[in-house]
Amino acid sequence: MVLAFFCYGTWFAAGLFLWPSYPILALMVMAVTLALQSSIMHEVLHGHPTRNALVNEAFVFLPIGLAWPFRRFKTIHLRHHADERLTDPLDDPESYYQALWMHEEMPPLMKFVLKVNNTMAGRLVLGPWLSCIGFFIDDAKHVIAGDKAIRRAWLLHAIGLAVVLPVVQFGFGIPVWLYVLVPVWLGQSLISIRTYAEHQWSEHPEGRTVIVERSPLSFLFLNNNLHFVHHKSPTIAWYRLPKLFRDRREEWLRMNNGYAYPNYFALLKSYAFKAKEPIVHPVLRRAPEPGRAFKPRVRARNINGLGTVPVPAEPPKE
């Protein structure tokens, strides 16, 4: 996958050649490459560029973004792709909504932090830390409880970190704390631009996913700004999404009930310091009840019957 080699090559060149003479530029370039690698991870978990999941995983094995084990990201994201459960505070692991009863039990300080995080500026600054801390705590509980799959994912991640961290600290000469505070944080903030308004509550699942029609960040996001198109065609490669959208633009916009923005600047202008969505889910999880958690179907025959590829999760039948 040329894109993966380009990403890692740019990251390596920034650390090895730019850092000694232009440290600020090096950190900025590395932040962009970390955001790009996150987008490549997303592409890989959806079955690209080959039909072999292990080969695909090898393209993103080195965790230069530090925080997210690929296999955990894959499991969580495929579960998120059950559109009938999108935005559910318990069943959608990528939902930013809170269950009412859980939110009411939170201390006032945490409620305030979440309120700030619901603005776009807050999401870019606080979002990476909140999502990572919550993710680490949740996974630690599962590991302690004996979840072997999660433990294996973190062990593989640790092997990758054992390569990346010495390269950063001793190969590039960049202090790890600085690497975390600038490239890692900023890289996740760049991704937060895309994820801020990706989903909203709607009675109709098709109206829950956004389309951002144009953006200079489209390449960085591998066209995932056309997020509704991706959700309806999750196994379509990133470079095919723009044409797929252009050929049926009016139909796509009708299908998602017009949940669209011309660009990310329009979002920033409207919601930089104002919440777009409420913290508490407006409809679901208003009272304590067991979550209908489900496991994604990770592998299935592809449409040509050749090999296997990851496919989106499906919710349980009612």
Describe this structure in words.
- This protein has 318 residues and is mainly α.
- It has one domain (2-284).
- It contains 14 helices and four strands.
- The strands form two sheets. The protein has a two-stranded parallel sheet with strand order 1-2.
- A hairpin with a 6-residue loop joins strand 3 (300-301) and strand 4 (308-309).
- Helix 1 packs antiparallel against helix 2 (23-45) and helix 2 (23-45) packs across helix 10.
- The radius of gyration is 19 Å and the shape is globular.
- Residues 293-318 have low confidence and may be disordered.
Shape: globular
Physical arrangement of strands within the biggest beta sheet = 1-2
Poorly predicted sequence stretches spanning 5 or more consecutive residues: 293-318
Amount of helix: 40-55%
| H-E order | HHHHHHHHHHEHHHEHEE
Largest sheet properties: 2 strands, parallel
Taking all Cα atoms into account, the compactness measure Rg is: 19 Å
Q: Could you give the count of β-strands?
A: 4
Strand portion: under 5%
- The structural class is mainly alpha
Span of the ends, CA to CA: 40 Å
